[in-house]
Structures are given as C-alpha cells and as structure tokens.
Specification:
The chain folds into 2 domains: 60 residues; 212 residues, Rossmann fold, CATH 3.40.50. It is globular, with a radius of gyration of 18 Å. Helix 1 packs antiparallel against helix 2, helix 4 runs parallel beside helix 8 and helix 5 crosses helix 6. Helices cover 49% and strands 12% of the residues. The protein is of the alpha/beta class.
Length: 291
C-alpha cells in the first residue's frame, strides 16, 4: 500500500491556495507572480515519495518570507471559530433531537470538514450538514467506531481546521464517559489548520486534553510527532485522524489502525478511496499485514 504521493494536480491545488492568500494580503502582482513561481518550483522539485503535507510545510516558509507573517489566515481562522460558535447551540439541539445522536454527531463532524477556506471560498456549513445528515457515506464504519469507543480508555483525536474544531467538540460531547480523549493540534500555524489558540477559542479543553502534535504542516506528519504525541499515537486504544490533510500525511505511512474522517476534496484522493469528490468518509483503516 503506497502513501498518498503527489499528483500533477497537486501543483495547481497549491497554487490556488497561494492565490487566495496573496489576494487576502493584497500582494502586488509582481510579488504574487514571483511567489507563485516559487511555489510551483517547490512542488515540481519534491522528491519521489513525498506527500502533500510535507511539501506544504515548505510552503509555510515561503509565505513567511513574502508576507512577513507565519500565520496568513489568522483573522479568517478567528472568524471561522466565531461563526461556528454562533451555530453551536443550534447544532447541539439538532443532536439532542436526533434518533441516533452519536451517528448524527459523526455526520456533523464530517460536515465540519468543509471549513477549509485555504482551498475554497467560505463554506456553507449548514448546507453540508443537511447534505450529509441522511445520505450514504462512501465508507461508513460508524458502528465499528461506536463499538471501539465503548471499550476504549484512551483516544487520540488528530484535529484539522479552525472553525471545524467546533464540530469536533460537539462530536466529543457524544463520546462515552469512560473515554479519556487527547486532542492534538498543529504546533505552529499551517494554512488554516487549528493550533492551541484555536482550540482555546472552542473550549475543547473542557472535554479533552489538548496538546501540540509536533507537526507544523497541514497534516500530522508522523516523523514530526513530539515524544508525548508519539506515545499516545502508538498506545491509544483508538486514533481518529480528521481531515484530508491527515489522511494524506498518515495513509500508508504508519503501522497501526486508524479511523480516517474526512470529505474527499480532490480527484487524486478520489482515485485512492474509490469515491467521488464531496463524499464523506469514515474509514477504519488498517495497514497491510507484514509479509
């Protein structure tokens, strides 16, 4: 099983994200073109076997040089957290009224994955929730996750984007009371991914211990895990990896089972999971047996 390596479309995807950042910061055309040229060269020069989060880590260094900040989405992340917080009472009410609150919470967590404004315009979270509420998922291991959580003592939840983590918080509220959850965020700004500051805005520390993962890429790269995060990753009863960035960082690159929870966002990942762009995935993935 090969990792999610780079595809020719990856260069255009990253260039699109950089265009958004350049417009946000009103970068002059000449500087914007130079920035895009560096980004395209970065992707084109990536060694064989590189995964997108590794390349995007290099992007962060380039953006800092051009923009004078290591957190170009800071204001948008804060706004996403505020908008999600405003919706939280309504969403919590929906879960209380659901016939199966846990299953509904998994769909809500999935819908939150549309909050990825590094690569697209401001998403309609409620529309995504309505779309995913009753429709089938591409891969649906909800019952497996429910069963494992009922027996688990320790869970590691690898977070994804700002704003989205409000949906993760509502999902955690539906976990069994016997579970001790650790919620891992990025150790430094990485596009619109959640950091400790974003987690603090959600109050997610009321439900879980929040730690930096060690990764400063838009994905939890296993080679960057802190010693604490590595122990948890290896030893937790259940690991949930949220978002396509975590899928790209971990699929085929680790030796333990994981739950991947994300919406398919590109044709490259579509080919790997066998389900079209826009499909929700809740997948208990296991690495192939040795030999």
């Amino acid at each position: 099983m090969k990792p999610v390596g780079l595809d020719p479309q990856c260069q255009e995807c990253m260039a699109g994200a950089v265009e958004r950042i350049a417009r946000l910061h009103e970068l002059p055309a000449e500087r914007r073109n130079a920035l895009l040229a560096e980004v395209r060269a970065l992707v084109a020069g990536a060694p064989a076997g590189t995964v997108m989060p590794q390349v995007a880590r290099g992007l962060g260094k380039i953006l800092t040089a051009y923009l004078g900040t290591n957190d170009p989405f800071r204001e948008l992340k804060q706004d996403a957290n505020r908008r999600a917080a405003e919706l939280a009472p309504e969403l919590r009410g929906r879960l209380r009224q659901a016939a199966d609150p846990f299953a509904a919470a998994t769909r809500l967590a999935l819908a939150g994955n549309v909050m990825d404004f590094a690569y697209r315009d401001a998403p309609d979270l409620l529309a995504a929730i309505d779309r995913l509420a009753d429709g089938p998922l591409g891969i649906d291991d909800t019952e497996s996750l429910r069963a494992e959580l009922s027996l688990a003592r320790e869970v590691l939840y690898l977070g994804d984007n700002a704003g989205e983590i409000w949906c993760d918080r509502l999902f955690l509220e539906r976990f069994p009371p016997n579970v001790a959850v650790t919620f891992a965020v990025r150790s430094a700004p990485a596009l619109n991914d959640a950091t400790l500051a974003d987690a603090a805005q959600t109050g997610i520390d009321e439900l879980a211990r929040v730690i930096p993962s060690g990764s400063d890429a838009p994905g939890t790269l296993p080679e960057l895990l802190t010693a604490e995060a590595r122990l948890l990753f290896d030893g937790a009863d259940v690991v949930i990896a949220k978002g396509q960035g975590n899928f790209e960082a971990l699929y085929g690159r680790v030796t333990r089972p994981l739950y991947f929870l994300f919406i398919v966002k590109c044709a490259h990942v579509e080919k790997i999971v066998g389900h079209p762009v826009g499909t929700g995935i809740l997948w208990r993935w296991e690495p192939p047996a040795a030999g």
